[in-house]
Amino acid sequence: ADAAAPHQAAGADPFSGYDIDANVLGWAVAAAASRAIELEPGRRELVPFIDMANHDFCANAAVRLSADGAAAELVALRALGAGRAVNVSYGTLTSNELLLNHGFTAWPNPYDRVGVQFGQRLLQAARILMDIQKEPFGDPAGEQDEVQPWQLKKLKALKLEGLYADLEVEIGGPMIIDPRLLAALRILFAESSAELGNASQ
């Protein structure tokens, strides 16, 4: 709407007489977004023919600007035999991002990840999966679910406890498991602060 405003103010038709409704405009935006290639950070452009290259996280080619910046080039990253498919990487995108922006998903996808809320429900699910429902969280008295003050202090240092806590942790992606979640589990299953040594200081 903002882009069309100057034309409308001047009495010009931004769509050259075509009857454009929300559905058609939405299709055009989706078509352009799914074919656009990022030539530079923050710069996405339509590059006919090159945009036909399929995606592969282990791409054998890459798209780059020519030396004078006037054209886009498809450059092989290694020797390719006759008849070999040319693939480029669309980026380190999750399956959701690939589906939203390009209309497909990739499997396996090393960048897939899911955010989960750190808390008692997550911990209880972990206990059930590991068949350790009766294992106390570092409580020498054996009272299940009781978190010790020293554990709370260390969880606050990880921002998983307290007023300014950020309770969302990620599972998946290149790291596989959010390092904060691993650290929290180690804290909760330690019998004392001394058992952790300097690992979570």
Automatic annotation (TrEMBL):
Gene3D superfamilies: set domain protein methyltransferase, domain 1. InterPro entries: SET_dom_sf, SETD3_SETD6_MTase. GO terms for molecular function: protein-lysine N-methyltransferase activity. It comes from the Eukaryota. PANTHER family: F21J9.27 (PTHR13271:SF116), UNCHARACTERIZED PUTATIVE METHYLTRANSFERASE (PTHR13271). This is SET domain-containing protein.
